[in-house]
Structure formats: C-alpha cells, structure tokens
From TrEMBL, chains A, B:
An individual GO BP term: cell wall organization
Binding site for substrate: 9-10, 41-42, 73-74, 184-185
The name this protein goes by in its record: Glutamate racemase
PANTHER family the record matches: GLUTAMATE RACEMASE (PTHR21198:SF2)
The family this protein is said to belong to: Belongs to the aspartate/glutamate racemases family.
Length: 267, 267
C-alpha cells in the first residue's frame, strides 16, 4: 500500500488545503487531522501551539505518512522550522507557498496579508517575503473574527459580508495589488473577501499554493504515488463530528472527492 | 562569493526565464548561456539536442553553479531525466512547473499546450500532466514559426499577429480553459497569443512558473543566497552579440534588472 500525505490543522480550515491536494494530486491519499476541540490556535502562545502540533504529528506518524503538510498558518509560523529539523519526512507549511505566489503575482511590490493574531504577530509572512525579495512592502492585518465565524459554518450571507467588510476596512486604502489569505479558513470566505477588497487586487489562497508546492516536493523527493487505485482518504477531528462533516460537505462538493472516511480522534 | 544559478537555452527564449528569476529572486546571481548559433533546437533529433545541452552544461559547470535551470522546453523534454541523474546539483526543467500551474488553474480539465515540433512530438507535457492527474484532457499544437520569428526580434505588430492567429486556428474551437506556453520564447508573444485565443483562457507562462519553482527548490536544498550584495549577472551567447543584446533589452526593461554583462561564448 502506498503511503499517504499527512495534513494537520487547528480545525476545519485545513480542509481547504486537503481539498486542493485532492483536486491537484488526485492519485495521492490524504490523512487529515483537525484539532477542532482546541481551535482556534490564533490567540494561543507559541509553547501551546507547539505542544498541540506535536500531539497531532504523533497521531499521524503512527499512520505511516510519507510527507507532512502543516495546513494551519499559526502552526506553520510557530513550528515549521522545528518540525523540518526533527522529522525525517519532508515537511511543508502554508506560509512560504503563499509568499512565493505573491512575489510572482505582484507588479507594484505592495502585498497585503490577512491572518489570525498569532500569524500576524509572528510576522512570518513578512519575514518569508522579505527573505526572498527585500523590496516587497507588506501590509499585515489580523482578522480575529473570521476563524470563529467559519468554524460555526457562517461562510456567506449578510452577516459574513458585514464582518468581512468591517474587518478589511484598514486594508482598503493601501496600494496593495495582491492579498494573501494567510489563514486556511479564509478561502471559505474568498468571494466575500474579493468583493470587499475589489477586483484590482489578486487574492491568493495559501491552500491552492500549498497543494501546488506539495506536488513539487513529492517530485523532488521522488515519492509520488505510482499505484492506480483510487485513494480512500481518512479524516479525523478531535471535536464534534457533526459540524466537521457539515463543513467538509460544503467544501468537497465534487462527488469524486467524497471518497473519505471521517472519524473522531483522541490525541 | 555565493554561487550562481545556471540557466541554459537554445537561444534568447530562456531570457524570459532569466528575467522572471531576477524579478522573483532578486538576491540570486544568474549565469545564462544561450546557444543562439545552433538555435532552433525544436526540429533537431534527441541525440543532437542532448549533445548540445551537455556542451552548455560543461560550460556552466566550470563557472561553479549551485543549480541548473533548463530554460528550454525541447532540451527539457529530451535531457531532464539524464541531467537530474548525472549532475550532483539540483536540476529543474520548464515542463513540470508549467504542467503543475495548469493543473492548479484549470477548472474544466481541458488544457491546451503550444510548443515547438520537438516538444510537442515528445509528448512531454501530456505525460507530465497525466502522471499527476490522469483525467486532464490535453490539446497539443506545434507552432514552428514562433521561435524563428522571435529570434528575428519580431514580437508584435501586424506580421506577428497574422502568424499567431493563423497558427492558433486549430486550437480555437477546443474546450480548453487553460493554455500553456510550452516554449520559453512564447511569453515574448504573450499579449498577441492572449488576444488570439480569447480572454476566457488562462495563459500560463512556463517561464514565470519555472522561476517560482526554482524558489521552492532553493529552499528545499537550503541553498538560497544569504549575502546582501546586489548580484551582477553574466549572460553568454554562442551567436551574434548584437541581436542577443537587442532582444535582451526588450525583455529587461526594468533598469534594476540591467546589471548584467553580456559576452560571446565558445563552447
């Protein structure tokens, strides 16, 4: 049996990464763990996020994964370097792929980033962008209401629109031509965000970009799945199954992507 | 002194890759070699392209490069696997990055590819796409007039428009929502191609995508340039300096990107 790609997230946001992995890499099996019971990670300390992340990694390592995707910006900001160093499988986070896509897309070198308080406070995107291209001007904004809203299943409608418009107000008069959705929950609000920020801004989903780079990493390490069987994905949540399944259904609308089992995990 | 990224091409087409490398990775030094004297590679045999490519690689290896970018689709199709196997530095071609970007962008899974006879005959894009996502439907079309036209400096105007429209005619009634410019010369005709194929089609530049993946590979191997000096790039051509410089000037319009030396190379 071919090994799977392990995906971890603080909750349901990483499902947008899992969805893109399934769409862009349909031959690969995904084993996903969302720590919904302890979501959100955004307001937590580095020590706490690191502890929780290692608990998720230990759970997935018992399932014999060949690669790890940290599908959570907060966990990436706090733990990517440590996980890369200590694990003997390739590890990818969601920050560097989004940063590289922004560098590709921006023409005026003014890039906006929205994320959780933890991600924004860590300045991880700013560092990732400037490490590659120092002249990038970064506008970063924390949007603390987005994750709790998405975790409650509020993805569109008047309430979502009002929260998004209000949150993005400080970003609206900036010069940015590119906006990174620096949280894997945010692609679920992408249309509302695009509308609020305007069509002149390219909105980058770190989920799509992370799936794309996962494809590159699989090739670099020559660990692509070579079997022809259609993979049956495994999804686990530490929280309530019901709401997890409901949100998963709203993301995995393509019936071909529904070959998944969803279970409760104790970590 | 930090090592450079080596870039090889059959002529001036790879300059679009070099330009994107300089734009997306401004801290990296580029050493470029264009085999203009023996361009185009498109109609040549695999044996001949392989021999010429190795001659270019030998020239660049003496300059102590840390990574090799094969910025020519024909050379990638014929030599990527061999170069990856035999060289002890990371090697990237232009085909896989373009294929991965197409998989990310396409919604209806109908992807068009235009390239030289050699690239199209090799079916390298079709193989790269289907290896990752079997359900992608591929429409491939050779456009043998584009490279000689670009090498003569004809990049826009009525003559370019007529040639492009005529060449793309067989692609126009296809279902494609994504078109890969499967030749590094073609981004120089991008606007004319976009106009001819229609705005409903996402046109993918393998040059932009290759630069983006080069950034990923540098990070995977931890070989990013850490010095703060502004790099002075070196460009070499086996052909006439004058026309090479003229085309380079039309690509490197940003004055910050003009810190290059251009010399004649004997390989």
């Amino acid at each position: 049996m071919e090994k799977a790609i392990g995906v971890i997230d603080s909750g349901v946001g990483g499902l947008t990464v899992a969805h893109e992995l399934m769409r862009q890499l349909p031959k690969e099996k995904i084993i996903y763990l969302g720590d919904t019971a302890r979501c959100p990670y955004g307001p937590r300390s580095k020590a706490e996020v690191t502890k929780f992340t290692w608990e998720m990694v230990d759970f997935l390592q018992k399932k014999n994964i060949k690669m790890l995707v940290i599908a959570c910006n907060t966990a990436t900001a706090f733990t990517l370097n440590e996980l890369k160093e200590k694990l003997d499988i390739p590890v990818i986070g969601v920050i560097q792929p989004g940063a590289r896509a922004a560098i590709k897309f921006t023409i005026n070198n003014h890039v906006g980033i929205i994320g959780t308080e933890g991600t924004i406070r860590s300045r991880a995107y700013t560092k990732a962008l400037k490490k590659i291209k120092a002249e990038i001007d970064v506008n970063a904004l924390a949007c603390p209401l987005f994750v709790p809203m998405v975790e409650q299943g509020i993805l569109s409608g008047e309430r979502a629109k009002a929260v998004v418009e209000d949150s993005l107000e400080p970003m609206k008069n900036k010069l940015i031509d590119t906006l990174i959705l620096g949280c894997t929950h945010y692609p679920l609000l992408k249309e509302t965000i695009q509308e609020a920020i305007g069509n002149h801004v390219t909105v980058i989903s770190s989920s799509e970009e992370t799936a794309r780079e996962t494809s590159t990493i699989l090739e670099v390490h020559q660990i692509q799945n070579k079997e022809e069987d259609i993979p049956v994905h495994e999804f686990y949540t530490t929280g309530e199954l019901e709401i997890f399944i409901e949100i998963a259904k709203s993301i995995f609308i393509d019936p071909k992507l529904q070959m998944v089992t969803i279970k409760k995990a104790v970590i």
